[in-house]
Amino acid sequence: MLQIARLGRTDMDLTRVGFGAWAIGGADWTNGWGAQDDDDSVQAIRHAVESGVNWIDTAGVYGFGHSEEVVARALRDLPPDDRPYVFTKGGLVWDPADRSKPATRVGAPDSIRRDVESSLRRLGVERIDLFQMHWPAGDDTPVEEYWQTFRELVDEGKIRAAGLSNHDVEQLDAAESAGPVDALQPPLSLIHRAAAADVIPWAAAHDTGVIVYSPMASGLLTGSFTAERAAALGADDWRSRDGQFTGDGLRRNLGLVEDLRPIAERNGVGVAALAVAWTLHVPGVTAAIVGARRPGQVDGWIAAAGLRLDAADLDDIAAAVTANDTGTGPVRP
């Protein structure tokens, strides 16, 4: 039985790790992770659920709808009592005629409503458990305006809870003035730690649940990533164009991984589980979204849900981060 935590003011109790479905969107879109076999994705999701994970996070933009369709396929035959919560995101509009073109950030109420209806259809559900604004709008729609639409969707029963992803404190304050923010989704890892100093404390002060994404830094902190693997990333994998996966950034990140290995070993886990567990020790964090493209990858991180790090562990992790000059933000929870 995995440890659980209540998601803020909602009535949902979440396992402290959830399945992240970004990578299963596949290739052939601007932020894809390269080719992905759908059967592997389905088996990974089912293995996570069978292992006790009770929620999945996806988004309409992942594979331009494909990730949501794969999630629906994986869950279709599950009895209602065994189905995990399904969270998704909207506010990004893509051009189906040009899959290489970045999606546009749109907050107009009618567009948000179309996003919800499209996600309901692709997921094959009557209500979305948590619907989140993926990024702040880029079409001049005020935060208060699109957030009011989100609260209306809750009242209408289209969505169970409403959340914001990648929003800063000022934007969160603006949204809260129009209605309660049920959940926040920021990036958080040993490499990307800034959220621990601003938006996560904000959430804790406002009874807002927090589900953090990329706790393994998109694969860098799995313990199996290498310089050779980074060099072999294809052009259809967004990581091939990211500074954390090349040059000095990659060198520092891989150095951090090596320094984390002995800490992980003395706790009886791999580096992946240790990295995820660190995010769960940050005050205010409800749970972490962790991706997997194959069933075996789930086994590499699921132990994080029950791993308790002591003061010596946290001190040693902080020292490793500092020694490798990796990322920004607080080095200790």
What can you see in these coordinates?
The protein has 333 residues and is α/β, with parallel strands linked by helices. The protein has a single domain (12-226, 271-309), classed as Alpha-Beta Barrel (TIM Barrel), CATH 3.20.20.100. 37% of the residues lie in helices and 13% in strands. The strands form 3 sheets. It has an 8-stranded parallel beta barrel with strand order 3-4-5-8-9-10-11-12, surrounded by 6 helices. Helix 1 crosses helix 2, helix 1 (38-50) packs across helix 10 and helix 4 crosses helix 5 (169-178). The relative contact order is 0.15. The mean pLDDT is 96.
Let me know the number of strands: 12
Principal-axes geometry comes out as globular
Helix content: 25-40%
Cα-atom Rg, whole angstroms? 19 Å
User: Hey, roughly how much beta strand do the residues contain?
Assistant: 5-15%
Structural class: alpha/beta
CATH superfamily caption = NADP-dependent oxidoreductase domain
Largest sheet data: 8 strands, parallel, barrel
